[in-house]
Amino acid sequence: MRERIWAPLPPLLLLLLLLLLPPPLWGGPPDSPRPELPREPGPLQPFDLLYASGVAAYYSEDYEQAVRDLEAALRSHWRLREVRARCARHCAARRPLAPPGAGPAAELPFFRALLQRARCYRSCQTQRLGGPASRHRVSEDVRSDFQRRVPYNYLQRAYIKLNQLEKAVEAAHTFFMANPEHMEMQQNIENYRTMAGVEALQLVDLEAKPHLESYSAGVKHYEADDFELAIKYFEQALREYFNEDTECRALCEGPHRFEEYEYLGYKAGLYEAIADHYMQVLVCQHECVRELATRPGRLSPIENFLPLHYDYLQFAYYRVGEYVKALECAKAYLLLHPDDEDVLDNVDYYESLLDDTSDPASIEAREDLAMFVKRHKMESELIKSVAEGLGFSYTEPNYWIRYGGRHDENRVPSGVNVEGAEVHGLSMGKKSSPKIDRDLREGGPLLYENITFVYNSEQLNGTQRVLLDNVLSEEQCRELHSVASGIMLVGDGYRGKTSPHTPNEKFEGATVLKALKFGYEGRVPLKSARLFYDISEKARKIVESYFMLNSTLYFSYTHMVCRTALSGQQDRRTDLSHPIHADNCLLDPEANECWKEPPAYTFRDYSALLYMNDDFEGGEFIFTEMDAKTVTASIKPKCGRMISFSSGGENPHGVKAVTKGQRCAVALWFTLDPLYRELIPDKVLCCP
What we know:
- By secondary structure, the chain is an alpha+beta fold.
- The chain has 19 helices and 17 strands.
- Strands 3, 4, 5, 6, 7, 11, 12, 15 and 17 form a nine-stranded antiparallel β-sheet that branches.
- The protein starts with a strand and ends in a 17-residue tail after the last strand.
- About 35% of the residues are buried.
């Protein structure tokens, strides 16, 4: 789909408009929120061209030119964003859309104001960019690279080639903050810090969002009972939040995609076209709430983010004796959660602390949030009221999820032991493993003879873990390996990618369904193909029994996979064969969270790995803490060994690099939800 943009005006009409309309005078709002960025001499160069030149220079090993171009690309990207936001604010102030007057042609003042603003916006951008804004329209791929901070990946490597270690650390850290799953970058940062002697406190995110940084600082001081500093940083975070909200809304006024049709085939009338585009802008602006609550590289926002500022502040102000401000913040929080019993109790308590000169009824909710909520509700009502008429569906998200809150005793000051209170709800430090929505039990019977129990959860330093030996015999391992050589394809199960997790290994795979089909068709011995299914079923029964599950455990996906070390690529490897991850949620090491949302396989409940051989080097299976760095257990594969564990964020795991030979295993994922069970046709389970 192409972006929908306004078609250029015919030259004659544009000339007439230029003659009719008064020239705009430059003069932004007196309280411009930020100083201008340093200007490059001459017109601003498009960041996509600079980026392409920088990448080309990098691959040509001209690292000095790569750094110049990539740094210039980032400056151009920042400058373009700043210009667009500033011009939008400037033109909104200079050319307000005045309400139409009465009488004939009453709509003309509105359209005159609209045309004036459009001309102002174009003129402003052209003046500040040193040329037409159309030069800065970039592809979705380039836009995505800058959103994911890919230029910093090139920069950190180029800086290393130029022996600029501290800059390499900054670039690597900036990239890693938006790509926390990139384990190789994490290792690079550790290596750079060791080489340069850079301490953790010197790590800088060059694109950090100020309001998120201030919020985190506020939480840190709150948890340390330093309420004066907590107030300072939370108030600063709110000022920065509302500034960022203004900028986010301004940037929403750019081009939008129209998924239902190509722009050139779009035949809507004037009012339909305006309404269609405006509704996309309005929905985008309405979603700024979610955008500002989402950390770089994350899919989910911080729950209840904006209200939490006022929740923290109401207690912090109480602790420093500013009861009026505490009451204002508590009432502000109630604008979004009017039935929160704890905060309602707080309001009553704060009112009881006021002196006789203060009238509780005259103390209202904070004006900053009151104005914000009023606009947000008006937008919501407008979007929902016109959605059906314009032919699109819209469901209002729950932006203020209550369970994203402070779950500490401080929520009700009148009953708190403030000296001994601890804050658990939003600790910025290490969090405990996520709760599992079922009873945790283990130690059930292993069902089969000769299976050897090795370690349980406690011995493996975790939750819902078990290690068993002799689940397969040596003969069965050899037979499975023989089946693998006849049915495996490179990239099978990895969307055709030969090296999906590391460029230093080749991955081959096959599903149990494929093995059974090949056996039924006579392409491999049916007995051997059936063995793949039988041992998978054996593993399923063992897991179901050992963890003492009260409901049936179903196959979700079964995959035989072999990973082979590529010769000539094993020297000084620091990457993993399979990066640290969890099986049913998106691991976020920086926040010590695991987000149970797509594209994660959220329906998976238990996992198992059944190993087929040990004649290779490396390839140890490891469990880690949620930081994806602290190893809690390491397991060396061998024939017949099986590791099984629950699939959530309580069990982050990965595979160390296979540095020599081929490592083969059967990977099994199970679900308790029959809707997501792996279906195998009956005919492939019986003999022909």
